[in-house]
Amino acid sequence: MELPKSGVLICDDSLCTGCGVCELICSLFHDGLTGPALSSVQVVHNPFTDQVNIYACQQCDSPSCYLACPLPDQALCIDKLTGARYINEDKCTGCELCVDACSFDLPRVRFNMDKSAAFKCDLCRGRETGPACVEYCGYGALRFIPRDER
Amino acid sequence: MAELCGWAGLVLWVDLTSGKINKIPTAEYEPEKFVGGLGLNTKLFWIRGCPKIAAFDPENPLLVSAGPLTGTVGPFSRGMISSISPQSYPDELFSYSSFGGKWPAQLKYAGYDGLVVTGKASKPVYLSIEDADVQINDATHLWGVDTWATGEALLSKDMEAESLCIGPAAENLSHIAPVMTRTGNTAGQGGFGAVMGSKNLKAICVKGTGTIRIARPDELLRLIKLMAEEKSVGGSDLMPDLRKPLVAKATRDELVQKYRTRFSGCYGCPYQCMATYKVPKLGTGAASCAQWVYGAYDSEDAESIWEANVLMQKLGFENYSIEAILSFLYLCRKEGILTENDFQDLGIPLCKFLGGKASGHEFLTSLLYAMVDGRSIFSNGLPKSIKHFNKEAFQTYRSLYTAHGYSIHHHETVGGALHWALDTRDTSPSAADEMSFMYAPHVAQYFGVVGGESTHNQPENTTYEGNERNVAFSVKHQMLRNSLTWCEWHSNPTSFLKPPEMDIRTLESRAFSAVTGIDNNVEEIWKAGETIWNLRRAVMVKREGRTRKEDMIDDVHFEQETNIATTLPLDFRFGYGVRRGGPLDRDEFEALKSRYYELAGWDVNTGWPTRAKLEELGLKDVADELAGAGKSVE
User: Fold this and answer.
1) For B129, which DSSP code?
2) Size of interface A-B (CB pairs under 8 A)
3) Does B464 share its domain with B340?
4) What span, in angstroms and rounded, lies between the C-alpha atoms of B107 and B70?
5) Taking 50 as the threshold, does the pLDDT of residue B235 lie above it?
6) 20 to 30 Å CA-CA from A35: which of B350, B449, B522, B582?
7) Mind listing the pLDDT tens digit for each residue in B37-49?
C-alpha cells in the first residue's frame, strides 16, 4: 500500500539559537499552553559543547507510527491537504504503540499524560499560513517543504 | 474554580538547617497585587518581618522568583533574586538582581513561581527540583569546582535541566560573587553568590515537565507576532552591537570571524541578544555586553579578552565589579599614584595597559586567583579595598564611585542619578528608561517626560525641571517588568513605539491580560508597579532606616563631571557614561528630590511614604507597621 506523501519541516541546526520559540509556539497553538513538554518540535541545547539540535517529525513516507496504530485513519490519520501524519486525540486510546514505533532515537511522537493521548507534528493542520513554528522562528532555522516539492 | 493561568501556583520553601521543605500556594502572597518576581520576593521578605540580620546570617532568605509571564513565549524568561546584599556599602541593604537563560522558565514548568531558601546546610549541598520532587543532595565533590565544570557535572546526564550555581569566589564569600546559569546569564549584582556560599549551597538544579496555561492563546500569538514584526524594537536596534564583542573594531571582527558560532539568548525570547563563542583551549560560552569588559584594557588581544571573561565566569566574579578594579589600577598607574613597587606588593604583574610587559594571561590569573582565595585586598570589590590606599588613590577611587557600593555606570542623566540615589544598588542595568528618553526626545515627548538631555550632540545636560516625572516613570516601570517578568532591554520605552498598540505600556498590559486572563488596563498594571515600589521603600524605611539623607549619590558627582570615558585606556566607542555640562548642582538636585517625593506621595522631609499613599495602594497593613515602628507620616 502506497501512502500519500507529506510535506515536511526542514531544520537547519546551524542557524538555530536554541531559543525554543518554536517549542513554545507549538504548544501554545495546539494546546493553549506553553512548555517544551507539549511541543512536537524539540530543541536540545548543550551550551557546554555549543551543540544545538532541532528534532522535528520527518513525516516519513512509510510512517511506522501510522503503521503501528491499531486505529489507522481514525486515531493516526493522514491529512488530505498536506499529507501530514497526525493524531486525532478524540480517537486515540493512549496505547502508545505509535510512540514506541517511531524509528528515531528521540521519538517524534510524544505522549500527553493529561489527555492520555499521543501527539505529534500535524504541520499545523488547518492553519492557513502553514506551520506556526516556521512563521515565528526569527532565524530561518525551520522551513516548510510542501509535499509536491519534497 | 477557574484554572490558574500564567502563574504556576506554588512557592517552594526550603530550610537547609532542618531540611524541611514546604509548598505554599502563591495565592497566599497576593500575586494580583505584587505580580511575581521582584514584587513577590519583596512581599515574602516583608512578611518575614524584614529582619535586621547580616547577609551571611543563615536566616537571611535567598529569594528566587519568576513572574506570570515567565516561561511563556516572548522576552520573558527572567528570574529575580532578592536577599540582604553583602555587596551593598556601607550598610548591607535588601537588594535584588535579575538573570535570564532557561532556569526561570524551568522553575515555572516545575510548578513554582518562587523559591525561598533559608538556613545553612552542615556541609556543601545542592538543591534538586524535579517537578514535585525536591531534594537536598550532597555537593561535597563539587565544592571548589568552577561554575562551568559544576554546571556540566550537574547537567551532563540531562540537558533538559538547568542549574544556578556559584564558583570558588562565592564559596569564599567574596562580596562581588554572582549567581551563574549555564549559559552566561548571571544575577550579577548584590553578591548573592556569596549568600549561597554562606548557606553551603553550591547549586540549584531545576527541571519541569509541566506547562503554563495561557488564558487567551490567540491574543498572545497575535502580540508576539506584532513584536516580531516591529523592527524598531529598542533591543533590535542594539542587537547587531550586542551580538558582537564590545571591543575595538579589528579585535571585534577577529573574534566574530574566528570564534562566533551562533546567536544565543534566553529561552522563549525572539530577540537572542547574546552570541556563542567557541575559543579553542579557553572555552565555549555565550556573551553580551558586560562579558567584554576586559576589551577596553587589552584591546588588541582577542584571546586575553575572552580568557578574562571565561576566568571571571568560572571563578564566579561579577564582570562589572572587576571592571571598576581595572579602571582603578589603570588610573592609579597612569597618574603615578601607585608605583611599580606598589604593584609588586599587590602581587599584580604590570601588563600592557599598566605600562609593563606581562601577558594578559599572567595579569588576569595573578589578580583573579589571589582574589578567589582572599589573598588580594580586592576580593570583596573596589569600595571595600580602598581603606588600604593613600589619599590620592582614594580620590581616584571616588571618581569611579557612585553609591550603595557600586561604581559608575549609566547615570548620565539627572533623572538617572536621582533614580540611583533612591535605590539600593546600581540601577543602570535594571532601568534603562532614563537612557531611552535621553537619546530619543520624541519618545520622551510622547510619554510626557523630559528628554534629549546629555546626548553627544547636545552638551548641556542639566535639565532638572520636570525630571521628577522621568524618575517616577522609570521606577514604576522597573518594578513592573522585574515582576512580570519582562526583559528590561526589550521593554524600553523606545521599543515598540507605534502607538497606540505598540506603546510599551499598552503592550505590557495586554500581554499580562492575554496570559493571566485578568482584564486590566495600563493604569491598573502601573499601579502594581507603584505598589511594589512603595513596598520596597517600606522595607528600606523599616529595616534600613532609610531617610531623605540616604537618598544620595557620592559627593564627587557634585564636584566633577561623570565621565566613564576618561577612566578607560581605550576610547569607548559608545561614549556612554558621560554627563556633559558639568557636575550636578546640589540645590537643584535637592529641589528635584523634593518634587519627586511630592509626586510619589512621600513625605518631603523624611522621604517616607505617607499613610495616604500607602492606603491608596491597598497597603494599609504596611502603613500600620511603619507607624508601629515610629516611621509613619500620617
Assistant:
1) E
2) 107
3) no
4) 9
5) no
6) B522
7) 999 999 999 999 9
Q: Do A33 and B212 make contact, defined as CB atoms within 8 angstroms?
A: yes
CATH of the domain at A103: 3.30.70.20
Conformational region of residue B374, where left means phi above 0, alpha means psi within -120 to 50, and beta covers everything else: left
Domain-embedded: residue B97: yes
Q: Is A15 inside any structural domain? A: yes
Clarify whether residues B21 and B153 are in a common domain: yes
Domain count, chain B: 3
The pLDDT score that the predictor gives to residue B3 is: 81
Of the candidates B583, B578, B570, the one whose C-alpha atom is nearest the C-alpha of residue B457 is: B578
Cis peptide before B485, with omega less than 30 degrees from 0?
yes
Q: Is the dihedral of CA B367, B373, B378, B383 positive or negative?
A: positive
Pairing state between β B10-15 and B21-25: antiparallel
SS3 B261: strand
Looking at the structure, do residues B54 and B160 belong to the same domain, yes or no? yes
Most confident of the ranges B57-71, B401-415, B554-568: B57-71
Question: B548: burial class by Cβ within 10 Å (0-12, 13-18, 19+)?
Answer: middle
Residue A149 lies in a domain: no
8 Å CB contact of B261 and A45: no
Instruction: Compute the distance between CA of residue B319 and CA of residue B321 in angstroms, rounded to an integer.
Output: 5
Give B283: exposed, middle or buried? Use CB within 10 Å, 0-12, 13-18, 19+: middle
CA-to-CA distance for B199 and B171, rounded, in angstroms? 9
Q: Averaged over A56-63, what is the pLDDT?
A: 97
CB-side exposure of B256: number of CA atoms within 13 Å? 17
pLDDT one-digit tens code per residue, B274-333: 999 999 999 999 998 888 889 888 888 899 999 999 999 999 999 999 999 999 999 999
Residue with cell 513561581: B113
Minimum Cα–Cα distance from B268: chain A residue: A21
CA distance B306 to B277: 9
Query: Is A2 within a domain?
Result: no
User: Which stretch of DSSP H or E encloses residue A22?
Assistant: helix A21-31
Q: Is B88 exposed, middle or buried (0-12, 13-18, 19+ CB in 10 A)?
A: buried
- Name residues whose C-beta falls within 8 Å of residue B313's C-beta, 6 or more positions apart in sequence: B147, B148, B167, B180, B184, B186, B285, B291
Give the total number of structural domains in chain A.
1
Residues B180 and B247 in one domain: no
* ipTM of this complex prediction, to 2 decimal places: 0.97
pLDDT digits (tens, 9 = 90+) for B446-492: 888 988 764 444 544 568 999 999 999 999 999 999 999 999 888 88
Residue A61 has pLDDT above 70, yes or no: yes
Domain that includes residue B263, residue range: 232-379
Same domain for B265 and B151? no
Let me know if residue B630 belongs to a domain: no
Is B414's Cβ below 8 Å from some Cβ in A? no
| Segments forming the whole domain that contains residue A14 | 8-144
How far does B231 lie from chain A, in Å, by closest CA? 12
* B265 and B412 both lie in a single domain: no
